[in-house]
Each structure stands twice: as structure tokens, then as C-alpha cells.
């Protein structure tokens, strides 16, 4: 089957789906599934904008609300993970995953589903060591710390995913697995993004948690976004025994959703022709959720997952075939995910803007139903219980401010030595947030003055690449040979030749206007949505 993979969507759903329709009209290629690797921005209303960790001037309503309200429907089944620029209050309603709109499914903090026999997993958020060992304690309304920590990866999600034994076909993460750049054309990457050099050379770019999962899961494909650059790599995994068959992962990072960017990729994935067209639960994953349910934590205290170190009576939470069989029997062997999408918040009305709408902590009926069906803890219900128990000591968010230091870091060190989210501090294409607050007021809601007329994109077919049979990167590329272009070494072919007027994706020592010399970054929070820099 054909799978479309998108990078950071940033709420531009119309642009994304229009590009897919263009693909079908021009080349008769219709993807069966669309995957989005984070920064999806499922913003329903002004309150959701207040929960998105970006400077106020970048808080635009975009077009998701039209799909949420039912005005529009996604033309292709869409599955996405969360990034670091999301309406965190909305996604928090679905910690185990669920529908954010008809035909648009969120994988949750971490999750595994099946579509036509293809096993798809993912983990939401980005890595920050000072929050990695905490529980999911955040709740709206967020403060200056929790609006960020809400999207930080937690060790419990990584632990759950590491209990998987059956093969994974596709895996998604928002930030890149650390070290993956050593398995692709690193020289070309640094030509396009020279500000990555220090972190690449010190091997601190990317998520160590994602790297750990990559080495454990060994999926056939791994897709990421976050750094706003296209990059392919091929990683051959080491075998643990002579009997084990060699495994390799084809890695691809996608660009952001903007005109003339490589934000969309089409790949052919082997599937089960006898499988149905519905999105399905994964029986092993459900069994793992049941097995690890006792580990659910909603406090901000740092804690370690069970491991074989003499301190834990049990450390292996992987599941048996019998446990998987029990899940199948519970579901009467019908793994189809119910289409039980429900509106849980008022939808944005362009004719009646409500800039002072406040976010509330919501229990989503989808999560309630899922937890009841499988005997799981509803994380948001647990958080609300904790808030009620601590009501005598003040509101939830006030407690968090008092107990956390100015950076939101925990007293105990992380098991990882670094504190790196996988985002270079000098990436001018990313919205960067100062962990100590910065000079931007995140509490001010700013709505796009023309939400019904978002920035027009000239839909260009250069935004799409169709992946060939193999994404193999040559060994010369992996060793930084003189071959400077990944496309020449087995990379993807363009569906259509780019016109000479399209701007280059490369930045080789100059600015986007082609001027030579060192690129000067005038501000950290450079525009991610607008094509032109406001300072120019």
C-alpha cells in the first residue's frame, strides 16, 4: 500500500490534503494512509491556542477546527504523534490515543496500532532530561513550566515500548534519534544546516531515548520531523545471535509544511491484502498497557522504571502469547478501533471570536471508554483526584510553581547526562522557547486576524517525493565521502522537475537570498509560518 509521510504540519491541514489531491490528479497516486510526525496543532478554539507553547505572535488558528467541527473531513486516514508545538490540553485528553476529528487519529503519549496488517508505533513529544523521569502530572490551565513540560517524553512511555517483542514496521518520533546522522550523508546535512555542526560532532543532537528505542525495536522504517530539514539514513543493526536475521532501519526526516519544501514523502509498504481498511488496536500493545498499568504515575517526583538491578522484584513487563490471546478474546477477535469521536470543546467561530476563553481540564469519553474496556487507569481522572486531595494546599498550578525551580528541573539527575531536546539552539527555522521564560508572554492569546483566509500556498508538486524501493544510503555517504548529494546515492526521485524559479532547499554559507558570508540570525523566534522574515 502507499503511505504518505509528512513532517511538521503546523496546523496547515488544508495545504497537506490539497497536495495529496494534486498528487492523485497529476499522477493517479492515491495514498491509503497519511502519517504526520508531530507539530500537528489540533487547535479547536482560542483556549487551545493558549495551551500551545509558542510565542503569542505565532499563535494562528489555522484550519484544524474545520475538521473538528465537521465542516470538512480528512480525505485519507491520518495518524499522527505529538510534537513540541501542540494544543497540549487537547492531546492530553487522549493519553492512550484517540480520534481528534473524524478520520484523524492521535497515537497518544505512546502507542501502536495496525492498518492493513502494517504495525505502526510512535512516541509523542521531545526529550528533556529534567522531566524524563517524572509522571504525567501537568493539567490545564498550564503555567510557564508545565506548558512546556506537558510535551516532554517520559521514561514510562519508553519503558512500555521496550516491552514490545513482535516486529514493528513503522515507527514515528518527533525529534530524531541521537546518532542517526552518522548513518546518512552527514556532510550534506551540515551544508544545509551548518548550525548543527557542534551538536553533531559532540553527538548530542537528537533524543537519547529515541535512540534507545531505535536500537531495541529495529523497525523497518523510522520517520521524524522537528529539525525542519529532509534527511535520509540507513542503519544496519547488530544481531544478538547467529540465529537472528540481520535487520536494518530506513530513517527519513521530513521538512515542515511550507511551499517548496520537502514536507511530504510517498513510500510503498508491504501489507496484508486480506486485512480490512479499518484502523485496528494492536493486541500486544494492549496487553503491555494492562501489564504496566500499576506503574502509572501522575506526580512530578522523579522515579526510575523497574530494572534488573536487585532493587525490583519485577523488571520484565513484556507479555506472553497467552496474555495477547486474552486480549483478543476480550475483543472477540475484533480489533477495529471504534469511530467514537466526540466533541469535547466548543469549536472556533470566526464570526464570534472569544479571545478570553480559558482552557479547562477535560475527561474525554473516548479515554473513559478505553480505560473501562481494558481495565486501565484514566490518567486525567487520576490527576483530577490528586488536585482534589491537594485543594487545601492551593491550586494544582500554584503547587507546581512552588515546588519546581526556575527551570522546572528535578532535584535528582536524569539517567542521561545531557539535557538536549534534539533541537539545535541556533536553528533559525524552529520556534525556540527559552526554558527560563524569555521575554515572550505565553499567556496572551493572539488569533490570526484572518482565520478564514490563512496564508495562501501555491501548491507546488515539488512538495512531494515518491520514495523508490529502497532508501538505502551508500556507505560512502555514511562515511562522509566527497559525494555531496544524497539524491545521487540512491535517494528519492522527484515526482516532477522543480522550476528554475523555486528557491533552493540548501543553505551553503549564505542567507536565503543567496547572499554570501555567515548567515546572521536576527532573533531566536524566527517566523515558522510566514515565508518572509518580519525583520527583513
Overview of the molecule:
The strands form 2 sheets. The protein has an 8-stranded mixed β-sheet. It is of the alpha/beta class. The protein is built from 16 helices and 15 strands. The chain has helices spanning about 15-25, 45-50, 65-70, 90, 130, 145-150, 155-160, 185-190, 195-200, 210-215, 285-290, 320-330, 365-375, 380-390, 395-405, 475-480, and strands at about 1-5, 35, 80, 100, 105, 110-115, 120-125, 170-175, 220-225, 230-235, 245-255, 265-270, 280, 465, 495. This is DBR1 enzyme. One of its GO terms (molecular function) is metal ion binding. One of its GO terms (biological process) is mRNA splicing, via spliceosome.
Briefly summarize what is shown:
The protein has 536 residues and is α/β, with parallel strands linked by helices. It is 22% helix and 12% strand.
Give the total of beta strands. Answer: 15
What is the overall pLDDT average? 80
Query: How much strand content do the residues show?
Result: 5-15%
* H/I helix tally: 16
Which parts are unreliable, with pLDDT below 50 for 5 consecutive residues or more?
399-426, 433-465, 467-536
The helicity comes to: 10-25%
Radius of gyration: 22 Å
Strands of the largest sheet, in order across it? 4-5-3-2-1-12-14-15
The N- to C-terminal Cα distance equals 45 Å
- Derived structural class: alpha/beta
Mind describing the biggest β-sheet?
A: 8 strands, mixed
CA-based shape: globular
Amino acid at each position: 500500500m502507499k503511505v504518505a509521510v509528512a513532517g511538521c504540519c503546523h496546523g496547515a491541514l488544508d495545504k497537506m490534503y490539497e497536495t495529496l489531491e494534486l498528487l492523485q490528479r497529476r499522477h493517479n497516486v492515491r495514498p491509503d494512509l497519511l502519517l504526520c510526525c508531530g507539530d500537528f496543532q489540533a487547535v479547536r478554539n482560542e483556549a487551545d491556542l493558549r495551551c500551545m507553547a509558542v510565542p503569542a505572535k505565532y499563535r494562528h488558528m489555522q484550519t484544524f477546527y474545520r475538521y473538528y467541527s465537521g465542516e470538512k473531513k480528512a480525505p485519507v486516514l491520518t495518524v499522527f504523534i505529538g510534537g513540541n508545538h501542540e494544543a497540549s490540553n487537547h492531546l492530553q485528553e487522549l493519553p492512550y490515543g484517540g480520534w481528534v476529528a473524524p478520520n484523524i487519529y492521535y497515537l497518544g503519549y505512546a502507542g501502536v496500532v495496525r492498518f492493513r496488517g502494517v504495525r505502526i508505533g510512535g512516541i509523542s513529544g521531545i526529550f528533556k532530561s529534567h522531566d524524563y523521569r517524572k509522571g504525567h502530572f501537568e493539567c490545564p490551565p498550564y503555567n510557564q513550566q508545565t506548558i512546556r513540560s506537558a510535551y516532554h517524553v517520559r521514561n514510562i512511555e519508553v519503558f512500555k515500548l521496550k516491552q514490545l517483542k513482535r516486529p514493528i514496521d513503522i515507527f514515528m518520533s518527533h525529534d530524531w534519534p541521537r546518532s542517526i546522522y552518522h548513518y546518512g550523508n552527514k556532510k550534506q546535512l551540515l551544508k544545509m544546516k551548518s548550525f548543527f555542526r557542534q551538536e553533531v560532532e559532540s553527538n548530542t543532537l537528537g533524543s537519547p531515548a529515541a535512540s534507545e528505542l531505535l536500537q531495541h525495536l529495529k523497525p523497518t522504517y523510522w520517520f521524524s520531523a522537528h529539525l525542519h530539514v529532509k534527511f535520509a539514513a540507513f542503519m544496519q543493526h547488530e544481531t544478538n545471535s547467529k540465529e537472528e536475521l540481520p535487520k536494518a532501519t530506513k530513517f527519513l526526516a521530513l521538512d515542515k509544511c511550507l511551499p517548496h519544501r520537502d514536507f511530504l514523502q510517498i513510500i510503498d509498504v508491504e501489507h496484508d491484502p486480506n486485512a480490512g481498511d479499518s484502523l485496528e488496536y494492536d493486541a500486544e500493545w494492549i496487553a503491555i498497557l494492562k501489564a504496566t498499568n500499576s506503574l502509572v504515575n501522575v506526580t512530578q517526583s522523579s522515579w526510575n522504571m523497574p530494572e534488573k538491578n536487585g532493587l525490583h522484584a519485577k523488571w520484565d513487563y513484556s507479555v506472553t502469547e497467552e496474555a495477547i490471546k486474552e486480549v483478543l478474546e476480550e475483543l472477540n477477535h475484533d480489533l477495529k478501533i471504534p469511530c467514537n469521536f466526540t466533541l469535547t470543546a466548543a469549536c472556533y467561530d470566526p464570526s464570534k471570536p472569544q479571545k478570553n476563553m480559558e482552557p479547562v481540564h477535560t475527561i474525554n469519553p473516548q479515554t473513559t471508554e478505553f480505560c473501562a474496556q481494558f481495565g486501565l487507569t484514566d490518567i486525567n481522572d487520576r490527576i483530577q483526584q490528586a488536585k482534589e486531595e491537594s485543594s487545601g494546599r492551593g491550586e494544582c498550578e500554584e503547587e507546581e510553581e512552588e515546588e519546581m525551580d526556575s527551570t522546572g528541573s528535578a532535584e535528582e539527575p536524569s539517567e542521561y547526562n545531557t539535557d538536549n531536546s534534539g533541537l539545535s539552539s541556533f536553528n533559525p527555522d524552529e520556534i525556540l522557547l527559552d526554558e527560563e521564560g524569555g521575554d515572550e508572554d505565553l499567556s496572551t492569546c493572539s488569533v490570526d486576524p484572518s482565520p478564514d483566509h490563512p496564508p495562501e500556498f501555491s501548491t507546488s508538486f515539488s512538495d512531494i517525493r515518491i520514495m523508490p524501493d529502497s532508501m538505502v544510503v551508500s556507505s560512502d555517504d555514511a562515511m562522509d565521502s566527497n559525494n555531496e548529494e544524497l539524491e545521487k546515492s540512491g535517494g528519492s526521485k522527484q515526482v516532477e522537475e522543480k522550476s528554475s524559479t523555486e528557491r533552493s532547499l540548501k543553505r551553503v554559507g549564505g542567507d536565503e537570498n543567496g547572499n554570501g558570508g555567515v548567515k546572521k540570525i536576527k532573533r531566536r523566534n524566527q517566523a515558522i509560518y510566514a515565508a518572509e522574515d518580519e525583520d527583513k
